[in-house]
Amino acid sequence: MPTDLQTARELFLHAVGKLPPDEWEQYVNEACGGDADLEQQVGSLLQVHLEAGSFLNAPASGLAATIDQPPLERPGTQIGPYKLLQQIGEGGMGVVYFAEQSQPVQRKVAVKLIKVGLDSRQIIARFEAERQALAMMDHVNIARVFDGGHPPAAIMRSV
Amino acid sequence: MSDVTHILNQIESGDPSAAEQLLPLVYAELRKLAAAKLAQEMPGQTLQATALVHDAYLRLVDVGHTQHWNSRGHFFAAAAEAMRRILVDQARRKQAFKRGGQAHRVALDAVDSGATAPDHELLDIDEALTRLAAEDPQAARLIQLRYFAGLSIEDAAELIGISRSTAYEHWSYARARLEILLDAE
User: Fold this and answer.
1) Rounded Cα–Cα distance for residues A141 and B168 (Å)
2) Closest-CA residue of chain A to B89
3) Local structure of A108: helix, strand or coil
């Protein structure tokens, strides 16, 4: 640390640690012995110290739900036990992939993934509702829902 | 024994190359954990960086095999650095997104929500902290452990190997100095 900063630091810490705020000005004035730069430096440290409030008190939060968007889903992407093979359809809300499930059984399935950028609360709710509706149906011509999942996905029997 | 535990033990036994391997592992784990947790959250939620770091510690470090307090120090130092990079990257991406520079796969309503420091503030703090590290490395380490890994001043002091009173002096000075550096930017 440069000497001037070092000195400013020492004077600052002395004032903060040992003296009440109303004595700071006089102390700094005397301790700096006419060095106007130093006096100004210590003065502003003390000033921001008084005003610092909660600055940096709380750890950084802020990993909003935008971090680390997963790599674009594409053939070969593994989502849980499902490996995407090829895209077989696309609708307004989602993209459907033909996929291979490895666990607990091996089978071919269709995976519907919500479109990226559409994962707002309302759309996810709609997606959930559709998944729920599909899950209640069991017909040879209707895709059967095997699994839900995160990120929002519906795993269906491939028809 | 986990990779991280192994590396921590190597660092303990004085292998200088081991420390370099730690950061990428911790970084990758934090990103993975964040992505997994965010997938379970409703969009717009934010994750506590601190909580993530502690989860990562529990997942990565085999506590039974690392008796040394120092090992925790190495881990949290790496985690704080990793978390700082992740948050800074995220803030930069979001700024680029807002400027319309790049198309990102981001739901607009997920961007600004949550009680988070504005991105510019985080980026400014990052820059000021880099400058502080040049002037006063120990104080900057303390701030980094506190701010990015969420350690208490006391824990951070113990990890760095300084007394509590020294740590509080660092804290008090570094906070004021950082504000001045921020104002100067």
Assistant:
1) 69
2) A67
3) strand
In angstroms, the CA B53 to CA B34 distance is: 10
**What pLDDT digit, counting tens, does each position of B69-108 carry?**
567 788 888 889 988 888 888 778 777 666 554 444 443 3
Question: How close B13 comes to chain A (CA, Å)?
Answer: 32
CA distance B180 to B150: 23
Question: How much of chain A, in percent, has pLDDT values that exceed 70?
Answer: 60
Chain B: closest CA distance from residue A48 (Å): 6
Tokens 């985080």 belong to: B122
How would residue A124 be classed by pLDDT, with cut points 50, 70 and 90?
low
B143 in Cβ contact with B129 (< 8 Å): yes
- Cβ atoms of B8 and B19 within 8 Å: the answer is no
Task: Tell me how far apart the alpha carbons of residues B80 and B83 are, in angstroms, rounded to a whole number.
Answer: 5
| pLDDT tens track for A67-104 | 334 445 667 777 777 788 888 877 666 778 888 888 77
Helices assigned H by DSSP within B41-68: 49-60
Helix (DSSP H) and strand (DSSP E) numbers for chain B? 9, 1
ipTM: 0.75
Residues of chain B contacting A59 with CB distance shorter than 8 Å: 48-50, 146-150
Question: Does the CB of A83 have a partner CB in chain B at under 8 Å?
Answer: no
The model's confidence at residue A121, banded by pLDDT at 50, 70 and 90, is: low
pLDDT at B26: 87
Count Cβ atoms within 10 A of the Cβ of residue B25 and give its class: 0-12 exposed, 13-18 middle, 19 or more buried: middle
A–B CB contacts, 8 A cutoff, strictly below: 148
pLDDT band at A156 (very low <50, low <70, confident <90, very high): low
| The pair of three-digit structure tokens given for residue A62, joined into one six-digit string | 């802020």
Question: Which residues from A are below 8 Å from B169, CB to CB?
Answer: 13, 17
Q: Which among B85, B90, B121, B123 is the top mutation candidate for probing chain A, defined by the most A β-carbons within 10 Å of its own β-carbon?
A: B90
A17 in B contact zone (CB under 8 Å): yes
Tokens describing residue A132: 């729920």
Tokens of B77: 């130092």
CA A150 to chain centre: 16
